[in-house]
Design a protein that fits this description.
This protein has one domain: Ferritin, core subunit, four-helix bundle (Ferritin, Up-down Bundle), CATH 1.20.1260. It is mainly α. The longest helix has 27 residues.
Length: 176
Amino acid sequence: MVYHLLYIFQRYSIIALLFLGVLLPACHKEDPTGYEMPLSVFSAEAVRKNRYQLTLAEEMLSIRNDNNLLILAEKRKYHAEEYIRQLSIAMSKQSITNSLELHEEDKRKILELKTLSGLDHRAKLIGLLMDSDQELIALHVKASSSTGVVDQSIRSWAASQLPLLMENLNEVQRIK
């Protein structure tokens, strides 16, 4: 069942996001503290996920014969760096950790990706990009919910990032 839901989410991301929008409030009623997110957790995860996006962009740049991926890589690098800069500004009163390393799981995925070549490498890279985009979207949906991050300005900022994050996902799906 979980694999089926993941397939639906990857194949029909907009529908799945709408489903999440219905599901999250329903889950909240059963667990009123289930979606409270400390600001430090949100910022650390957001920075880590964007650092992972930067690493994936570097991998895209290694595929020299695919102009779509090269253009996407440059856009992604810019967006991830700009995202971290904007988050730093939005959290001006709080500290943001910029030196966070990738999660061990993300490191493992990158190492596994590097063992592949040709179309297998490209397909795996696109799959990792879509997964990463979906994780970023879920993080922002959670953070921007009414019981997400305590700071209203950060909740609003997280919500304002959702259109760009969804466009990133759609763009990867189009070049798939």
